[in-house]
Write a structure and sequence with these properties.
0% strand, mainly alpha, 271 residues
Length: 271
């Protein structure tokens, strides 16, 4: 099906995002966190860092049961109806124009970024003991956000079969780099082909779950783990926790937004 001029303009927006440097927010976070990164290197024991990395590995492995952390279809359908987009199922939203679905998706941003910031600030007040709890909570919020945004465009990304797509969006958010965005959009193409042809989505990466996510700890370790451990620094913990959670969730929202729009456009072209 041919794209409209408006949809072609959105595709150009996605291409600009794909090839752009790290976002202003990521660059600002890099600058603001420089002293925290230095402090972490000087004061945080390697054992503490290893414990946090282990927590991330455990949570990524738990994504095989991703359907346990999900949203209610009714929430999205009720929000759509309030905007004059009645639908019986989430899949029905695919028939709506992109210009109507974009605001619906963006309406999911604020509630999740604020929730993540409050959660990070609260655990940051307590320090090291609660970092192990903070990381799974942060990823749970972000997984839910990715699923919500996908559903806003008519694509509920529920269940373990969507691991590769969800992981690629997490990776694009954590790294902020062009390579990760390219990988995410390649994964989108595979998903779009499956949806358009009523096939089961299997992802580009084959092998075990460990094979699928082996590249993620490096990116997240660089962009997130050291900053989360920065919550152990006295007096700075709450501010660091809130700031890092807000930044990461905002980056996840933007990555999911661009990938879901790309999924919608590619699905439409293939129909």
């Amino acid at each position: 099906m041919q794209l409209t001029d408006e949809e072609k303009a959105v595709r150009r927006e996605i291409e600009d995002w794909q090839h752009a440097d790290a976002s202003v927010a990521t660059q600002a976070m890099d600058w603001a966190m420089t002293p925290v990164d230095w402090a972490v290197d000087k004061t945080v024991p390697p054992k503490t860092m290893d414990q946090v990395v282990d927590r991330i590995h455990q949570f990524l492995s738990a994504l095989s049961d991703a359907s346990e952390w999900t949203f209610e279809d009714d929430d999205i359908l009720a929000a759509a109806e309030e905007r004059g987009l009645p639908a019986q199922t989430v899949n029905d939203l695919r028939s709506q124009p992109l210009s109507e679905l974009d605001p619906l998706a963006r309406s999911r941003f604020r509630q999740n970024t604020i929730l993540a910031a409050l959660e990070g600030g609260g655990t940051g007040l307590i320090g090291t003991a609660f970092i192990a709890a903070d990381i799974p909570l942060l990823f749970t919020i972000n997984l839910r956000l990715i699923q919500q945004i996908g559903a806003c465009y008519g694509f509920p990304l529920r269940g373990p079969m969507f691991q590769p797509l969800v992981l690629s969006i997490f990776n694009a958010a954590a790294s902020g780099g062009q390579e990760a965005r390219n990988e995410a959009l390649r994964e989108v193409s595979v998903a779009a082909a499956a949806f358009a042809n009523d096939l089961d989505y299997k992802g580009r990466v084959s092998g075990t779950f460990r094979d699928q996510n082996r590249h993620l700890p490096r990116e997240i370790g660089k962009a997130l783990v050291e900053r989360k451990v920065g919550q152990t620094i006295p007096l700075a913990g709450a501010a660091v926790g809130a700031g890092v959670n807000y930044w990461f969730t905002n980056e996840t929202a933007e990555s999911a937004f661009m990938c879901a729009r790309a999924l919608y456009l590619e699905w439409k072209e293939r129909k």
